[in-house]
Amino acid sequence: MWTLWPFSRKAEQRSMAIDEWLAMAGIPNTGSGEYVSAGTAESLPAVMNAVSVISEAVATMPCYLYRVTNDKGREAREWLSNHPVDYLLNEQPNDCQTPYQFKRTMMRHCLLNGNAYAVIRWGRDGQPESLHPYAPGTVVPERLSGHRYKYTITEPFSGITRTYLQEEILHLRYATDDGFLGRSPITICREALGLGLAQQRHGANIMKEGMMAAGIVKAKDWLDGVNGKKALDALERYKGARNAGKTPILEGGMDYEKLGMSNQDAEWLASRRFSIEDIARMFNVSPIFLQEYSNSTYSNFSEASRAFLTMTMRPWLANFEQQIKSALLVARPASGTRYQVEFDSADLLRATPTERYATYERGIKNGIMNPNEAREREGMSPREGGDEFSQAWKQEVKISNESKEGSE
Predict the structure, then answer these.
(1) Residue 331 falls inside a structural domain
(2) Host domain of residue 382
(3) Largest CA-CA distance found in the chain, in angstroms, rounded
(4) Residue 374: HSE in the Cβ half-sphere, 13 Å Cα cutoff
(5) CA spacing 20 to 30 A to 283: which of 70, 75, 125, 142?
(6) What is the pTM of this model?
(7) Among residues 201, 158, 151, which one has the least CA distance to residue 43?
(8) Burial category of 291 from C-beta neighbours within 10 Å (exposed 0-12, middle 13-18, buried 19 and up)
(9) Which of 325, 345, 365 is the last residue of a domain?
């Protein structure tokens, strides 16, 4: 098809960010000489593990929508299982992702880039129909006024750009200074990550170019071609696992000197471990969850699991819950009613069978739960008569004076 210039419309191109230009030019952005970005930082195993631990924990949790009402001064909650928002969060957020994949993608983007974006497709009934996440590098946010924003998104395959208003975007933010754009932990702690990358590169170069001999054979005279070949052939008899433990015999005044680990190598290993601790501080997780078990025991691992929920996961869950509520539940409920989005984090505190059954027993005897509720938590079907609550907590034991006198 023929087009007449200047009446043809050119495709809009997204401008290159400064970090993208530095990456392409190979210019380091840290004092260690390494270029640190979301992509390079994740090449550190500790960073990848921290991002996986947090994002996968959020992704495995069901996220329910409740209607909360005031019932005579008490809070009454009703699960809205048929609501479109609950369906998107637990059944099908879009036509190419499962709920697990969607939540994991959003959390991973937010942890690495400080911002996560998903386009909201609204139906004619005013309810959300789908949520499509986009990589932060394809989104250009812009402030229109004091409290209005727009987002320009470049499609990754076609290159077509589209502009969306803030009502059409689910924007999950990390720590923010202006209340609009989140700050990336990778950018905030860039120097610490650059040091870890430099240590990793140093170790790789040592393995490739460095001399890793276990010992040195010293000779008093120069070894010519014939004598040198004899010496190498003699040493071949003691190489490999099959020849381990054999006593070598050295000829011609040769001496063998064993080499050990230098202080510099020991310091390098210690600095690698400290880098893991720095990354754990960055993402507010215990080093235990980054597979660093040097100071772990069974007791502090149990406490670390509880601390992981309260100190690490709870702020992230609250942030995600409130952002979902703000972006997807735009219609105000009736007076005296409000919506609540809540992640079910019970599995993070799931104890051993012995501890769980002891908890169920105390809860049933005290009238807190009934047997069918305990069976439901264990994935078992209800049984007849299991919906009744125990009244044992109402029973009182009284000792009369007559029984006391009779015993005397």
Answers:
(1) yes
(2) 351-395
(3) 116
(4) 19
(5) 142
(6) 0.74
(7) 201
(8) exposed
(9) 345
